[in-house]
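Encode chain A's predicted structure.
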Amino acid sequence: MAKKGQRRKPQLHKSRNGQIGYRMQTKLIFIFGIICFLFICLIFRIMYIESTSGKKYEKIVLSQQEYASTTIPYQRGNIIDAKGTVLASSIDVYNVVLDCKALNKEPDLIEPTLSALEQCFAEVDTDKARKALKEKKDSQYTVLAKKVSYEEKKKFDQLKEKLQEDDVKNNEVYGIWTEKEYIRQYPYNSLAASLIGFSTSGNEGINGLEKKYNSVLNGVNGRSYGYVNDDSDVERTVIEPQNGENIVTSIDANIQQIVESCITEWADSIRGENPLAAEHIGVIVMNPNDGTIYAMASYPFFDLNNPRDLSAYYTEDQLKGMSDEDQLNVLNNIWQNYTVSATYEPGSTFKPFTVAAGLETGAFSTGSTFNCSGVTQIGPDTIHCWKHSGHGIETVENALRDSCDSALIQMAQLEGGDTFAKYQALFGFGQKTGIDLPGEASTAGLMYGAEDLKKTPVNLAVNSFGQSFNTTMIQLATAFSSIVNGGDLYQPHVVTAYQDLSGNVVKTIDPVVEKQTVSKETSEEIKKALRTVVRNGTGKKAGVDGYSVSGKTGTAEKLPRGNGNYLLSFISATPAENPQLVTYVVVDQPHVDGQADSTAAKDLTKNILTQVLPYMNVPTIAEMQANGITTYDSLAVGESDSDSVNSNH
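Encoded structure for chain A:
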């Protein structure tokens, strides 16, 4: 009992104290359990991140440490012809780099190092190197020479290794290293230049296949990381580059060479003071049975390894007199792929399509005849046949043989505007072909619709023989292939496969049939008629002895009319009975007197086919007959040469 005046000490009951201790212990256990659970979750989360995003965070860690990062360039894919010939490739070259800081630490090795550089690299200026050692003492990256060859680099490596093996004091190479890169090289210079295109130093394709397939040809750069870890040890991480893929084309380098040689030979024979023989010359050689292109040439040519060089066409004084804008316009004109990008009025090469539409729809038959007096009156408009005296009575076949304008007008009138416009569209005129090349021109706004043809009959009349609407070379060649192959219109294409750099096929590109234009029966009649054009008609000069060549001439007066400027053309199929080749030649405004003479296009065709047909093993007439194949020549009975044989229409 407490004494009087003393304060009594508070006391807790034993049961109360035990209850508080139990609760505290329970809370601590619960908190500890949560902490353990979170720790386990954290461990599993770290394991998950490591397995799924380890590379990503490794790069982040590397970027936060002291490191030296070097880009490892990828190799751009090659462009290859159908037989494995490399048309464009990337070759490795090297930059020679001086580490001033390292070499300055070894002053006795400066002269031996500079001497070795001078022996191996013609591009290295040793005076520049000495200056850099003095002025950039702490620099670890000074480029002494760019894009030296592998042979020079190999010579340097061998000398460096030899000096090290000799173990002669103060006679070593030090502080020099090389970094690799690639440059684009075109082994055949100007061959297929406008088709292939070229690329900049940044691997950006300019024109042609280089541009169209830029993403396929390009790869992804790799990188080498050098860094110091927590233990002060030097570590390196290398991410290898992903090289681009090769593209395999249907181009045959031999056929392409033949075509371009024939163009050059003709151009050299007529070139005068004008630097160019014609505004443009285009040639397409293709397989009508699958749409693949064997050769595609566009004159004037240029050197892919030096695409901005105009010295082949202009003197030094002429170039000095041209502004930068003028030179750029000339370059753009030369770089253009005329066969794909230019539009023009096709002229009489369109006539087979007018005939095919009429035969297919029954507007007339092969037995129909047409009277050509030399003049056709369409309302107030008078249209003269190219032969002003007229051809007289013409059959369908003879109308094509003689290229009779009046007969074609009458055929189109029988078809009517609706049918004519429908078949123009069916053949693909006014539409892009979808060829796998950049810059294909659109002719959609350069055609008359059905209503225009019906409302203004003169438009239908001149359209019938290929005037007053525009096409492109690839458009007409593709459509022509369909009327000589039995009616299948293929999408034209150049690339047939992708490969990795080891030559393994990654992807195959198969031919695509877009539609049927005419029946096999109509195709057969057209082929027979086109054979007469070359056998004894307006295309006789394009014939090749011993071969069954069919085709159609074209002479289109350019706008503005009356200036004497013409576009001359000839399109052919060989052999006529079962074509393996379609060859289309266009000479746009030749720089000669009397441009209306279409002999240029026919001569070029003949020269090309004379060399290509044997190379392609195309059968001769005699070989076909020996194998039991009936030729159109054997079916011709009682034919007489047309009086228009020497015509250039």
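Confidence is low (pLDDT under 50) at residues 1-5, 9-14, 62-67, 640-646.
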